[in-house]
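Section 3.1: Structural characterization of target chains.
Under the original work plan, the team committed to producing a structural model for every single-chain target entering the pipeline before any wet-lab resources were allocated. The record below documents one such target. The sequence was received from the expression subgroup and is listed exactly as submitted; it comprises 222 residues.
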Amino acid sequence: MARRSLHRIGASNGGERLDERVDDAGVVAFDFDGTLTVRDSFTAFLKWRCSGPRHMLGMARLAPAAAAYLVHRDRGRIKAAAVKEFLAGLPRETLEEEARAFAKVMAPRLLRPDAVEVWRRWRRKRATLVIVTASPDVVVAPFARGLGADLLLGTQLAYDERDRVTGAFLGTNCRGEEKVRRLQAAFGPDVRLRAAYGDTAGDREMLQIADEAGYRVFSATP
């Protein structure tokens, strides 16, 4: 039975690692937003943590970035603009505390019951369960812990020397080919998924390396 060294879910230090077993049932990867959840968790988080007027002002300031997206179609750029607008300067510890509070309140409202049932079915088969998401990993980490995920691969935020959000990403937006690269980094260059689930074009490459590819197979609402 193979052994892999996996990143600890929600670790503040990106270099912290956790040794886990990769069971014979294989690796099963789930996209998060729209697959395990009914809507985008990051935009929901930003709206949840800001007062009405502050959120409205921030969205107004993002209008130029939204207009530019219609031309470049780069979701990473508009997401980075939202991080800079709403989170820049926030201490990492505060952000992690807010993410935990958000998940506690919103998990029952966001998680799809049918997706969670399939997740649990794979858990009973002792598969290695991985969430691979374009959302910031710091926001998704409390949900991943609640689900008992073995590994979380998400977009990482950059922090300054005072451990405050800079408003930029550390590395690449975890979408499309980057999802496969992150899985290869975790499980080896020849990784083959037992199953994968997603709901957008950003999951296509991940679904292509799965024996069982589930595209938009979940539809239940809480």
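Residues 92-110 form the longest helix (19 residues).
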